[in-house]
Amino acid sequence: MKKSKKEIKLRDRVNLIVSGVLVLLGVLMLIVPFLGYFEVNKLLYVTFSIYSLIKIIEVIITGKVGDNEDIYTAIACALAAISGFKFINYNTPMVLGITLVAWVGVMAVIKLIKLDYYHDRENGMFYVNLVTFSLFLLIGILTSVNLYFSETVQVLMLGFFFVINGLLNLAEDAIRILVARNSIKISDVK
Fold first, then answer.
1. Is the pLDDT of residue 65 over 70?
2. Per-residue pLDDT tens for 18-28?
3. Cα(181)–Cα(174) distance, rounded to whole angstroms?
């Protein structure tokens, strides 16, 4: 079933808006310490809940068939939020680190599935996704390891992580849209 140009434009707009909202979530996390709110656990799990809700809304609006990355992301975020609320009274830095590294691990698997999809179809977006995947994994692991400082630093690090995650998603979507609209073929350099 071929999608009309109107449906494709709607999907592209929704993808860009969702990526922008993810950047905004990170910016809000950067602002929160200056407002005097320091319950990092609750802040992270609320952020995961909002992230999950945004991805569910994106799936409903775009109605993507065959691309389950957003559904898997929504499930991963929901599981991270639920697990975080279960362990909210435990050692904050350890719970934050374990939750974030587990979420990054699950997201890495989801992104690897997408990479495999692009690689099997010899789609040039494989290289774009490989770069964004590598940066996401590196920044996620570094953030998870460095959550053993004061609460202000924890919130700032998580804020920067979510800003970078949103920017990586935004770049990935923007490149995909530009390539598709301008009929550019990204291929292997031989």
1. no
2. 899 999 988 98
3. 10
Provide the Cα torsion 119, 165, 62, 79; round to 10°: 100
Q: Is 1 inside any structural domain?
A: no
Tokens 């993810």 sit on residue: 22
| Residues 127, 129, 133, 139, CA torsion sign | positive
Q: Is residue 157 part of a domain?
A: yes
Q: How many residues does the chain have?
A: 190
- The CA-to-CA distance between both ends of the chain, in Å, stands at 34
> What are the φ/ψ torsions at residue 75 (nearest 5 degrees)?
-65, -45
Given a contact cutoff of 8 angstroms between Cβ atoms, the answer to whether 137 and 108 are in contact is yes
Sequence-distant (≥ 6) Cβ neighbours of residue 9 within 8 angstroms: none
Question: CA–CA separation, 48 vs 36, rounded Å?
Answer: 21
Give the count of domains, the chain: 1
pTM: 0.85
Quote the domain boundaries for residue 116: 11-179
Q: Is residue 185 included in any domain, yes or no?
A: no
**Confidence category of residue 54, pLDDT binned at 50, 70, 90:** very high
Q: For 88-123, what is each residue's pLDDT tens digit?
A: 777 777 888 888 899 999 999 999 998 998 888 888
| Region class of 63: left (phi > 0), else alpha (psi between -120 and 50), else beta | left
Residue 100 in domain: yes
